[in-house]
Specification:
The complex is a heterodimer of chains A (355) and B (294). Chain A is an all-alpha fold and 355 residues long. Chain A is 70% helix and 2% strand. Chain A is globular. Chain B has 2 domains: 19-257, P-loop containing nucleotide triphosphate hydrolases (Rossmann fold, 3-Layer(aba) Sandwich); 259-294, no CATH class. The chains are: A mainly alpha (355), B alpha/beta (294). The interface between A and B is large, with 38 and 49 residues.
């Protein structure tokens, strides 16, 4: 399989290679600073320190559990959105796709009097189909994902409300919390698990599990290599035989899967689903991924960064409540965090890539 | 698939060419980008394809690399006709292309680029994962064998110089069993020293038994390594000659447009006789005062 060339090594005087002459050693600290998620890690420490100081309730273990829960609701989707962004695309329909999935499961289970797992199964098919459609249209039309998924976002937003109203006669689904399978579904998607003195929402555990799997896939599998490649340079990837279309469609379907999971959490937490929710969340997912060091242009970033980005969001959201400040400031702080994180990430990247 | 007769062994070398194009052409709608191309590439042979911008070189490479099917003529590998639908298929037959600008993914580490699309994996089932340690070691060894000592195999390719990137791409193609290496203007964007490095590896690849197709518009670079020269102009072959039948001047002349260049020279001489003559006369003397001023 392998052959080797027997080219002469460059005839350099004194036997010093260019490496020994011109390359200094980089310290361990420098290598650490070159990680994509470093900016977000510094941001997380700062935000934590601020709220730890100003908000007394923030210091309790139970409120930390609430912070983690708020982080996980954005964080689960941020994992998938980070993968997609590393693969070079966005998904603006991700926020409402979560609601589409919850509505599908709720309406189908109630109207057909099915076991809720059957409704959930159908919702999974719908979610994967939405992801597939996003990816397929993107590949076939070669339009930017911004346009494709913006269209999907608007269409789903309309469908969510229109179809729900048409079938149930109101803007929300009928309650399914006394139906077959609800308790087991709730245990999987929306239960509390006591860990030591505090109750941790199960979404936190799912979030960390998904992030661990995604990190492993990105760093240690062939598919992960391909995700970085199609995001970094789709043409180069194609030229060495990477199936670019399959990878991109697969990424959109991954977002679809996670949208389904998040939708199931919303539905089984209460048993009903409002049809107008979800708008704007897609930008929070992107925010978390970008704060965590993902480039908008693709090919760069980590899932760990997106996890930290979502954690910063969760801390800000709950911290402001615990500090007794006006709720309306949340989005201002999230926006300011985003701007700061992007600038710091950019600066760190240019500094560390210098030789 | 096999209705075309097998290629006859090459008269000159007595060996069957690895890759052969017979009367190949490509049209895009009513535009004929390429027509009547005949090309044979054997092992241990460097075929240089020269041509000006827009001559049809890129179209030709893309046909050979498996990105486009030709609209006319036959493409044969080892004497049998082929119809590639993707670069992967061409790669599987040992035809590897190194593109000038899209050889590598800039943000990915060197070793990941080296194995991109042909990753080594261990484990089984859903737990098949990259054999990172082995891939890093092999990439490092292969590059060292070619005399490239990179500071850091984990550094993104964006940190490498243009010449280093080309050589990494060549090393990659050779390691993965390429029999024919297509190099798309590997020296076009490089300085003198970097070009020299790349040309050295073209020669090394030939000595290792590969056939090389070297696309360039620099006749000097071509003549340094080439065994066979093809000049393409307006989608047709203008020149097809072995090294023995050609001097560097002939090649440069053909490349620059032959008769057209003569006409252009004539025209320029008439238009600006004074400055051209003055500069030629002044040059040797003028260099010294300028140097002193600085």
């Amino acid at each position: 399989m392998s052959q080797t060339l027997t080219a002469k090594a460059p005839a350099s005087g004194g036997g010093d290679s260019e490496k020994t002459l011109r390359v200094g050693r980089r310290s361990l600290l420098w290598r650490f600073l070159a990680r994509p998620e470093v900016g977000s890690l510094i941001g997380a420490v700062v935000v934590f320190a601020v709220f730890f100081t100003v908000a007394a309730p923030f210091r309790q273990a139970s409120s930390f559990s609430t912070v983690l829960y708020a982080s996980s609701t954005i964080g689960i989707m941020a994992v998938a959105v980070a993968l997609l962004m590393i693969g070079g695309e966005f998904d603006l329909s991700a926020g409402v796709a979560v609601i589409t999935s919850a509505l599908t499961a709720g309406i189908v289970s109630f109207q057909l009097s099915l076991n809720v797992w059957a409704g959930a199964g159908l919702a999974l098919v719908v979610s994967l189909a939405i992801g597939f459609l996003n990816g397929w249209i993107l590949i076939r039309t070669k339009l930017p994902s911004f346009l494709v998924t913006l269209s999907m976002f608007l269409m789903l937003q309309g469908l969510n409300i229109a179809v729900t109203k048409m079938i149930t006669g109101s803007v929300s689904t009928d309650s399914i919390n006394d139906m077959d399978g609800f308790d087991s579904a709730r245990a999987v998607f929306a239960s509390d698990i006591p860990i030591g003195p505090v109750n941790v929402r199960i979404t936190v555990l799912w979030w960390l599990l998904f992030a661990a799997i995604a990190t492993w896939v990105l760093a240690r599998t062939r598919v992960g290599n391909w995700i970085y490649a199609v995001g970094g340079s789709a043409e180069s990837a194609r030229a060495v035989g990477v199936p670019v279309a399959k990878v991109k469609i697969g990424l959109f379907m991954t977002v679809g899967f996670f949208a389904w999971f998040s939708g199931m959490h919303l539905l089984f937490a209460s048993g009903v689903q409002q049809s107008g929710e979800g708008v704007g969340n897609e930008l929070l997912y992107i925010m978390a991924a970008v704060v965590g060091g993902c480039l908008l242009t693709g090919g760069y970033g980590t899932v760990v960064g997106a996890v930290i980005g979502a954690f910063i969001y969760g801390m800000t959201r709950q911290g402001i409540v615990y500090a007794g400040w006006d709720n309306n400031w949340i989005m201002f702080f999230v926006g300011a965090m985003l701007l700061l994180a992007v600038v710091v990430n950019m600066w760190v990247r240019t500094q560390t890539s210098k030789r | 698939m096999t209705d075309t007769p097998a290629a006859a062994p090459d008269k000159d070398t007595g060996r069957q060419p690895v890759l052969e194009l017979r009367d190949v052409g490509k049209s895009f709608g009513n535009i004929r980008a390429l027509s009547g191309i005949n090309l044979k590439v054997g092992a241990e042979e460097v075929t240089c394809i020269l041509g000006d911008n827009g001559a049809g070189k890129s179209t030709l490479i893309k046909i050979i690399a498996g990105l486009y099917p030709p609209t006319e003529g036959a493409y044969l590998v080892d004497g049998g006709p082929v119809a590639f639908t993707s670069p992967r298929e061409a790669l599987d037959r040992g035809i590897a292309t190194v593109y000038q600008d899209l050889a590598m993914v800039p943000l990915m580490p060197v070793w990941r680029n080296f194995f991109l699309g042909s990753e080594i994996r261990t484990g089984f089932g859903p737990f098949r994962m990259l054999d990172v340690r082995r891939m890093r070691r092999i990439a490092d060894e292969e590059l060292k064998k070619m005399g490239i000592d990179l500071p850091d195999i984990d550094a993104p390719v964006a940190n490498l110089s243009g010449g280093q990137r080309q050589v990494v791409a060549i090393a990659r193609a050779v390691y993965f069993g390429a029999r024919v290496l297509i190099l798309d203007e590997p020296t076009a964007a490089l300085g003198v020293k970097q070009s020299g490095v790349v040309l050295k590896y073209i020669k090394a690849a030939r000595e290792a038994g590969l056939g090389v197709i070297f696309i360039t518009h620099n006749p000097h670079h071509a003549y340094m390594v080439g065994d066979h020269f093809v000049v393409i102009k307006l989608g047709r072959m203008e020149l097809d000659a072995p090294r023995s039948a050609l001097s560097l001047d002939d090649l440069a002349h053909h490349m620059a447009g032959g008769a057209e260049l003569d006409a252009l020279q004539h025209e320029l001489k008439q238009d600006q006789p004074a400055p051209a003559a003055a500069r030629q006369g002044a040059e040797p003397g003028a260099a010294t005062p300028v140097a002193q001023e600085e």
